[in-house]
Specification:
The complex is a heterodimer.
Chain A lengths: L3 H7 L4 E7 L20 H15 L5 E9 L7 H14 L1 E12 L6 H9 L4 E7 L3 H6 L6 H13 L5 E7 L6 H13 L4 E6 L7 H7 L8 H17 L3 E4 L2 E3 L7 H8 L3 E4 L4 E4 L2 E5 L3 H9 L5 E6 L2 H12 L6 E2 L8 H9 L3 E4 L2 E4 L1 H5 L4 H6 L14
Parallel strand pairs in A: 1-2, 1-9, 2-3, 3-4, 4-5, 5-6
Antiparallel strand pairs in A: 6-8, 7-8, 10-11, 11-12, 13-15, 14-15
Helix pairs in contact in A: 2-3, 2-11, 7-9
Chain B lengths: L2 E9 L5 H11 L17 H6 L7 E7 L5 E8 L7 H9 L3 E7 L6 H12 L3 E7 L8 H10 L9 E2 L8 H11 L12 E10 L3 E10 L1 E2 L4 E4 L5 E3 L2 E5 L3 E4 L2 E2 L3 E5 L13 E4 L18 E7 L5 H11 L7 E7 L3 E8 L2 H15 L3 E3 L6 E5 L4 E4 L11 E16 L3 H10 L3 E9 L2 E9 H5 L2 H8 L5 E11 L2 E8 L2 E2 L5 E4 H18 L7 E7 L2 E8 L16 H13 L3 E4 L2 E4 H8 L4
Parallel strand pairs in B: 1-3, 1-4, 4-5, 5-6
Antiparallel strand pairs in B: 2-3, 7-8, 7-16, 8-15, 9-14, 10-11, 10-16, 12-13, 12-15, 17-19, 17-20, 18-19, 21-22, 21-23, 23-25, 23-26, 24-25, 27-28, 27-29, 27-30, 30-31, 32-33
Helix pairs in contact in B: 7-8, 12-14
Chain lengths: ~400, ~600
């Protein structure tokens, strides 16, 4: 095998590696992501990940981020992770300053495990705390408590992790502003380096989806969601966090999620595992979702790809706009045609967008409508009106 | 001289008119049984699907009698729905006789009676044909009894046949030749020919269907159309077989076609008289009613850029449907479109479907309306068939609406339900009489507006399909009529304005407000939808402003899903109309115009 530097010469842009761990002990009632509770498949999956990696070794030789997402990656034994790290190290090259993240449930944190993760090179922990209210946690069907969460956070830091991210969820039915503020302030006492705050969204094919269809109210009103979103941003920014993406806050420039930034900045990434998405140059593809089918295809020597698409110039431009407008990076002003100049002025006047040097960036208010913002800016949809969801 | 018979087949829907026609064509050997396309005369797809005839078709059948004599039989097929009774009258005027087809299982139906009336009006010899005698449910004796009691015809003259099985067909031919008189008229007299149909042929222009009453017509003749006085030179004449077959001359008594460089069906008015320029007839041929539209509505393209396409489609469509009238119109909400007149709701639906199928034009229809008469304070009166032309309320003294004389035939067990339906539709003078035990005829006068919309469907559903009906225009009667406007954030949605009975306005307004609320997407501001009569708001719904439109997370780098959503939303813009600052989807108009009781 040739040295790492050779690869660096050939590939100016290091890629991100995502590994999808499709296993959960229980299925959360709000989650529609690809996962199974059949843990007996882990050995087969583990083997398949490495085999799939080998298939991509030529196209993706060099990574500077590695992210174990799920699912529940923290239910993997350290031996599984160790084996994967060792085997992947044989296939790919990783940058010396690799950002190596693993999503972890609070109930899976213990000092010894965290130390071993450190030893295997993990340097970023994304804790699925979700809430610091026991009532909210049981509503969300989580198996941990607020106290366990705080302990997990403390033990993670204690183990020497300098980059800890916390996932929170808000906008639950009847959630009051005060309730959410209390949760945020309690979390801030623990000084996490990174916070992701997601609004509870009800997906059709979930337990929550079915309950909502029966008429149950599970998420807050839109007015409340708006209020909570703005409160979140205001509080976290006042504590020195950068609101660098719709749902993401970092305590400093270097503490932004480098891996997730690749998605928004359209940098190359490879997703391994069932349902994982990949992107390279002008190509996107994603794997089959079913764990068994995935494993079978890989072990048969087949690429487990479900679908591939080649992006047209226009599609690339659309992606640049809508992904850029999700982040504080915004987009280069010259990306939108002069035709949109008028729209930009209006959106600027209405405080959805602002100009920063030669870039157009969203405001807090802009983040709130970032799904429709690209259409408004490009003139593909009249400003201030909401396009209906297309019929299936 | 060639022996001829000109006849038509008349029947209630589904009594087997087309099947009998097919069997006659097959029997004279114009086409072999093997490559017979079921119901040959119903050529349009929609006709075949709905089992009804819309356009008249004509065919010349060379029939050899058992004693070897050749007789030219002209079968003029007639449409079979109340909306198209005008076409029936044209076709019948060209005949000397008619086969009256009656289903042996169903007996005499409302339309059967209507057909007999039409035929008698034109002094036709009527030959009753009892069809479908092969069916186990056939009741020939009862049918004969009905022919006598309800139609006043001699049941002994009725022929028995099964068009499907081909039994009794020879007797039908025999009766046509023996009972229907040959056409009178003289080839020496000045040319007098009736236009009873016109079809557009993209290579030859208008092909005009004519019946020659007197005189002769040949290629090269300079002919004059009496109504317009326009002169044309005949290029070709001929007869209708399975295809057109040209011939040197059409003389008195013949039915056939002429081609004379006519570019537009509208130029050839159905019912017009064709004569020769050098030797014209003094008087036009009688017997035709003018076709008058009874239902009016506007057609708008789904998106403004489709307007030229729709304009072109209508121009081509009207070449083959002289009963359809249209003119340009423009709406603030929907842009450029057309105001159109139809013979009835079925005609409207047929036009809409044909535009869709034959010309790939999807259209938005505004609420259909009838023609109201407004009496103004200055003593003048005004006929209004378009909400756009609704007079200033201060000028209106009173309003009248058209009524029809409606005849319904139904089994007795539905009598109560049918009378209820009539009363619900504002019927006056409801009378009924028993035709025979178990069968009732209900006569009443109803506002046309209440008959044209969904009366047919409702009647069929409450009587499980047993009742049938027919109607004739009657008179105008006073009506409590208002104009209902729909406002979106104060802006009038002109295309949704409608002229409506006051009692129904409230209900309709609430319905429309609710429907629009469901269909209009949310905006960054509140949208108020109102139904108003004059300045008075009678219904209201609101769509709250949206506060956010953001997906929390791009899971695991799935960018495609979001991009595809945006792409589809972009496409959706074409299907939206801007009303003031509100985006209204096309389907909102479509939904709002669906009529529900």
């Amino acid at each position: 095998m040739t040295g790492k530097t050779d690869f660096l010469e050939n590939f100016s842009e290091p890629a991100g590696l995502y590994i999808h761990v499709p296993f959960c002990r229980f299925r959360c009632p709000y989650c529609d992501f690809c996962s199974t509770t059949d843990l007996t498949l882990i050995p087969l999956w583990r083997k398949s990940i490495v085999e799939e990696a080998k298939m991509w070794a030529e196209k993706f030789p060099f990574f500077d981020t590695l992210y174990f997402g799920g699912g529940t990656p923290s239910l993997l034994k350290i031996t599984d992770l160790a084996w994967l790290m060792k085997e992947l190290g044989k296939v790919f090259s990783f940058s010396p300053d690799l950002e190596l993240t693993i999503e972890t449930n609070p109930e899976d944190v213990c000092p010894s495990r965290m130390k071993e993760l450190r030893a295997w090179g993990f340097n970023r922990i994304s804790l699925g705390i979700q809430s610091l209210s026991d009532e909210n946690l049981s509503f969300l069907g989580r198996r941990h408590t607020a106290a366990m969460s705080e302990r997990a956070l403390w033990e993670t830091k204690e183990a020497g992790f300098k980059n800890v991210s916390v996932d929170l969820m808000y906008g639950l039915a009847n959630q009051q502003k005060q309730n959410w503020e209390k949760i945020l302030l309690r979390l801030l006492k623990n000084k996490p380096e990174h916070i992701s705050c997601y609004q509870l969204t009800i997906k059709e094919k979930t337990v929550f989806g079915r309950r909502q269809k029966r008429g149950e109210k599970l998420s807050a009103t839109e007015e409340r969601q708006e209020e909570l979103f703005l409160v979140t941003s205001a509080i976290l920014r006042s504590h020195g966090y950068l609101h660098y993406e719709v749902s993401n806050f970092a305590a400093g420039e270097d503490l932004k999620s480098r891996h997730n930034l690749k998605y928004w900045r359209r940098q190359p990434y490879l997703g391994l595992g069932p349902g994982a998405h990949s992107f390279l140059k002008n190509k996107r593809w994603w794997n089959v979702k079913q764990v068994k089918k995935y494993c079978q295809m890989v072990l048969d020597g087949q690429l487990p790809v479900a679908c591939t698409e080649l992006l047209s110039g226009q599609q690339e431009k659309l992606e640049k706009i809508f992904l850029g407008l999700r982040t504080s990076d915004g987009i280069p002003a010259n990306l939108v045609s002069c035709f949109s100049g008028e729209n930009f002025s209006l959106l600027e006047k209405k405080c959805f967008l602002q100009r920063k040097g030669d870039r157009i960036v969203p405001t807090e208010k802009g983040y709130l409508v970032c799904d429709v913002l690209p259409l408004w800016l490009s003139g593909d949809w009249p400003v201030l009106t909401l396009p209906p969801l297309p019929e299936k | 001289m060639v022996s001829r018979r000109n006849f038509s087949i008349i029947a209630h829907i589904d009594h087997g008119k087309s099947t009998l026609a097919d069997r006659l064509i097959e029997t004279v050997g114009l086409i072999s049984k093997r490559d017979f396309h079921e119901q040959l005369l119903d050529t349009m797809e929609i006709e075949r699907e709905r089992g009804i005839t819309i356009k008249s078709q004509t065919i010349n059948l060379p029939y050899q009698t058992p004693n070897g004599q050749m007789v030219e039989l002209n079968l003029i097929d007639t449409p079979g729905h109340v909306d198209f009774s005008y076409e029936v009258s044209r076709a019948l005027a060209c005949c000397e006789g008619a086969l009256l087809v009656i289903d042996a299982s169903c007996g005499v139906q409302a339309q059967t009676l209507a057909c007999v009336y039409h035929a008698l009006e034109h002094n036709l010899v009527i030959i009753p044909v009892i069809n479908k005698i092969d069916l186990p449910t056939a009741d020939v004796e009862r049918t004969k009894e009905e022919i006598k009691s309800q139609l006043g015809l001699d049941p002994e003259e009725a022929l028995l046949c099964s068009a499907k099985e081909g039994t009794g067909i020879e007797n039908v031919f025999k009766a046509i030749v023996e009972r229907i008189p040959p056409p009178s008229g003289s080839p020496e007299k000045p040319l007098a020919a009736l236009i009873f149909d016109a079809q557009y042929d993209s290579f030859r222009g208008v092909v005009v269907s004519i019946r020659v009453f007197d005189g002769e017509i040949r290629p090269g003749d300079r002919i004059k159309l009496l109504s317009s006085g326009n002169i044309h030179q005949v290029e070709e004449v001929g007869i209708f077989r399975l295809r057109r077959e040209s011939c040197p001359v059409l003389s008195a008594g013949s039915v056939g076609y002429l081609i004379a460089g006519l570019k537009d069906v509208a130029e050839t008015r159905i019912g017009d008289t064709v004569t020769r320029q050098d030797r014209p007839v003094a008087v036009a041929l009688p017997g035709f009613r003018e076709m008058k539209p009874t239902v009016f509505c506007s057609l708008y393209p789904i998106s403004a850029e489709d307007y030229p396409g729709l304009a072109d489609a209508l121009a081509r469509y009207v070449l083959n449907d002289a009963a359809f009238v249209y003119q340009r119109e423009s709406s603030a909400a929907l842009g450029q479109g057309f105001r159109c007149g139809f013979l009835g709701m079925l005609h409207l639906e047929v036009v809409q479907e044909r535009l869709q199928r034959e010309f790939q034009q999807s259209v938005i229809l505004t609420p259909p309306t009838v023609q109201y008469r407004f009496w103004l304070h200055d003593g003048s009166n005004l006929l209004v068939d378009n909400p756009f032309h609704y007079p200033e309320p201060a000028r209106i003294r009173s309003v009248e609406e058209p009524y029809v004389q409606l005849t319904i035939l139904t089994p007795e067990r539905y009598l109560g339900a049918v009378i209820n339906l009539c009363l619900k539709r504002r019927a006056v003078q409801v009378r009924h009489r028993f035709l025979r035990p178990g069968h009732v005829e209900i006569d009443s006068q109803l506002p046309l507006a209440d008959v044209i919309f969904d009366f047919h469907d409702t009647l069929k559903s409450i009587t499980q399909g047993y009742a049938s009906f027919d109607y004739q225009p009657d008179c105008y009667r006073p009506a409590d009529i208002v104009k209902l406007d729909i406002l979106i954030n104060g802006e009038k949605l002109d295309a949704l304005s409608m002229i409506i009975h006051r009692q129904k306005a409230y209900h309709r307004a609430v319905q429309i407000c609710e429907k629009l609320k469901k269909e209009i997407p949310r905006h960054q501001f509140q949208i108020v939808i109102q139904g108003a009569i004059g300045g008075r708001i009678i219904a209201r719904s609101t769509i709250p402003a949206f506060r956010k439109d953001v997906t929390a997370k791009c899971y695991g780098g799935d960018v495609t899903r979001k991009r595809k959503l945006l792409e589809r939303q972009k496409e959706g813009k074409k299907k939206m109309k801007m009303v003031g600052s509100v985006m209204v989807p096309q389907k909102a108009f479509v939904a709002a115009m669906k009529i529900e009781e």
